[in-house]
Amino acid sequence: MINILLNDEAVTVAVGTSLTQVLERQTIALNGVALVLNAEVVPRSRWSHIMCQHDDKLEVFSVVAGG
Amino acid sequence: MALTDQAFIQYSRQILLADVGEHGQNIFSQSHVLIIGVGGLGNLAAQYLAAAGVGQITLVDGDTIERSNLPRQLLFSVEDLGSNKAQVAAEKLMQAYPDSHINSLQHYLTLDNAPEIFNARQQFSLLLDCSDNFSTRQLINQLAIEHQVTLVSASAANFQGQLLSVNQQLRPDTGCYHCLYPSDMGVSQSCQTVGVLGPMVGTLASMQALMSLNLLLSLNAKADQRQVSGRQTQVDDQPLLGQLYRFDGAKFTWRQAKLTRDPDCLVCSA
Ligand SMILES: [Zn+2]
């Protein structure tokens, strides 16, 4: 198991867990959020190809469209 | 072009800055900034740019002023209710800041009327997204790419604010708005449904205006360098381009992330 931070909260995931699987496990709708991994945006099309590493910092957030 | 004595006095506090100087003030006065949306963001961003001496500003909005706008759209007052936002903002700003010429287009931006705005006579220095809905934001991104204008996009709702700037020519690696937020994304938050405090929008508008003035200076400095060196160089010293800033106005935290191009993006990678 490895430890990651998801929106500042500690989460434990299995080795080989993809970014997509992290979101699915948290029941976060994939088409409702954007994702930042270690201070870099990861486009949605890449999420299933990237596996979590120990101490990864994930930020998941919605679009803000108001103004 | 030499500044008049009056301009030198009026803009002295910004001319004092080493990064501005008389040269930078001239850049501001020769710039033309296009602002889509004259709500909470557009009000204050336009006012800061006009007050800074930006020579030309085009405001686009089809919306009329409502009572519920007054807590955050500070150019407007009760006697303006029912009038067009772009028109009233242009009139008030030109009265207060006669160095700035403000055009107003009193309709919403659509794909059909975009050629009227982006025509051969207009060369925009920057495009500010101050709109209030996701589909207009996607359209603005598409037009910024098509017309090779640097996009400065700000948004606010509830206690969340976001700010980013992108330019496909200068920083293709950081992609576009659609790379970050694909158009099939679900959007739940708008000011109409979740509410917003005036200073929350004002904070993002101020940051958007500050980023815009910085970009006007640095993009022009880069253009000057290219003219001198006679070759196109990759701009790697534009620290503001290609970054996403997110502000939480309840926790008072800022977060920064580098934007990344989506190789499958339908808009910038097509
Ligand atoms: Zn893109």
Number of helices of chain B: 10
CATH C-level name of chain B:
Alpha Beta
CATH domain class of chain A: Alpha Beta
Structural class of chain A: mainly beta
CATH architecture of chain B: 3-Layer(aba) Sandwich
User: Would you tell me the overall average pLDDT of chain A?
Assistant: 97
Unreliable parts of chain B: 231-235
At the third CATH level, what is the topology name of chain B? Answer: Rossmann fold
How far is it from the N-terminal to the C-terminal residue of chain A, by CA?
A: 42 Å
Spatially, the strands of the biggest sheet of chain B line up as 3-2-1-4-5-6-7-8
> Which two chains have the most extensive interface, and how many residues on each?
A-B, 21 and 51 residues
Q: Enumerate the distinct ligands.
A: zinc ion
Q: Total number of β-strand segments of chain A?
A: 5
Q: Which structural class should the secondary elements of chain B be placed in?
A: alpha/beta
The rounded distance between the terminal residues' Cα atoms of chain B is 42 Å
CA-atom Rg of chain A in angstroms: 12 Å
Helix and strand string of chain A, N-terminal first? EEHEEE
SSE order of chain B, as H and E?
HHHEHEHEHEHEEHHHEE
CATH architecture assignment of chain A: Roll
Q: Got a strand count of chain B?
A: 8
Describe the protein in words:
The complex is a heterodimer of chains A (67) and B (270). Chain A has 1 helix and 5 strands, in the order E-E-H-E-E-E. Chain A has one helix at residues 19-25; strands spanning 2-6, 9-13, 34-37, 40-41, 57-61. In chain A, a hairpin with a 2-residue loop joins strand 3 and strand 4 (40-41). Chain A starts with a strand and ends in a 6-residue tail after the last strand. The relative contact order of chain A is 0.30. Chain B is an alpha/beta fold and 270 residues long. Chain B has one domain (31-258): NAD(P)-binding Rossmann-like Domain (Rossmann fold), CATH 3.40.50. In chain B, helix 4 (40-51) links the parallel strand 1 (32-36) and strand 2 (56-60). The complex binds zinc ion. Zinc ion (ZN) binds at residues 175-176, 178-179, 262, 265, 267-269 of chain B.
